[in-house]
Prior knowledge:
Shape: globular
Strand content: 25-35%
Bound molecules: magnesium ion
Low-confidence stretches: none
Distance between the termini: 35 Å
Helix content: under 10%
Order of helices and strands: HEEEEEEEEEEEEEEEE
Amino acid sequence: MSTKILSLVLSGLILTAAVVSAQDWRSGIPWEKPPIVTPGAKPSDPPSDAIILFDGTNMAEWNKEWSIVDSELHLVPGDGDITTNRRFGSVQLHIEFATPAEVRGRGQGRGNSGVFFGPYEVQILDSYNNDTNYDGQCASIYKQTPPLVNASKPPGEWQTYTIIFNRPELRIDDGNLLEVVRPGYITVIHNGVLVVNRHELLGSTAWHRPPEYEAHPPTLPIRLQDHGDRVRFRNIWVREIPDVNVRPAPTREPYFHQ
Ligand code: MG
């Protein structure tokens, strides 16, 4: 390319950039400045705005005790479910779990537990070489959808869930559900793999009847299930997040910023 052509091309690019920058489009929404959050050293570490639900030391955030052994939370069958003392709406939850290293039972009877957001369960199960109903395997939204893929690790190994729970908005009068204004949504990342992509909740997740929404308060405890298997947990933290699709109204027409 000759020098002359090159300089023509360059001046054309500069002119184009100038025109584009003069047409910087703005929405007219007065967005607030995003708060600063200090991330953890590793993605599994809690960021500065997380509420620590279990860090290996105590169960102050829970309604009762499970056994703490070597800084791990051990579910002993018969101890019953545990729920957080706090109630949550929409959240990002991080939790690590391990199903029993010694394999016993099959199907739903192998390393079963679960993370519940009110009446909505993300299944915990030993799904490593263990087929069961697919909408009941590990990382399923119980009886509503299987995970996209099976990202389970072998029995006994530590696994992670990052769960994004967006609460439903329900219109309730005198304890009766009048309308599902906005359904709930759940996203699950299992061991770093996206396995449930913004599943629209169909209602409560029960084993003995179809899903159906029921009246409940806008905030609810998070619950870990005792399903009779010795599942272990560690490093549990949660971040409260704004509800989806809540967007401030523009205070002016969209415009081009000079
Ligand atoms: Mg379960």
